[in-house]
Design goal:
Elements lengths: L13 H9 L8 E2 H7 L6 H9 L12 E2 L12 H12 L4 E2 L2 E2 L1 H4 L4
Helix pairs in contact: 1-3, 2-3
The structure holds a DNA duplex (13 and 13 nucleotides).
DNA sequence: CTGGTGACCATTA
DNA sequence: TTAATGGCCACCA
């Protein structure tokens, strides 16, 4: 019954769906791209989550920084400012990094 | 239509 | 532990 990956064509506003889901991640917690995709009902669209966040209008009320990759790391380019900003925002919420990694067992969102 | 791209992921070596 | 690989598919030029 549910969406099995291919019938996403008829779904309108995939980006909105994704943003909406990201808005549900609690303060001080993180979710992976794949997890966001699953919760949004878009199984095989982990990459689209990254794309959707990338194309997020500046100042749009979505906690994009709470989304990281499956390894528990920030996916943004090492050199970019956004990467530093993301880490800063997370640490300000109490998320701890061990080297460059976040313990998903401890800070992962229980959706 | 076609082909390239990517803020991904699970598996394998 | 990291690195490579194949799959994934909406988006864009």
């Amino acid at each position: 019954m549910g969406l099995k990956g291919k019938d996403t064509k008829s779904l309108p506003g995939l980006h909105e769906r994704i943003w909406k889901t990201v808005r549900r991640i609690p303060n001080g917690r993180v979710a992976t791209y794949g997890q966001v995709a699953r919760v949004a009902g878009l199984r095989s669209h982990a990459r689209l989550v990254g794309y959707a966040l990338h194309s997020l209008p500046p100042g749009f009320p979505v906690p994009w920084h709470r989304v990281i990759n499956a390894k528990g790391r920030i996916s943004l380019p090492v050199r970019s400012r956004h990467r530093q900003l993301q880490r800063k925002l997370l640490e300000a919420e109490g998320v701890k990094f061990t080297r460059d990694r976040i313990d998903l067992e401890e800070f992962g969102w229980n959706a």
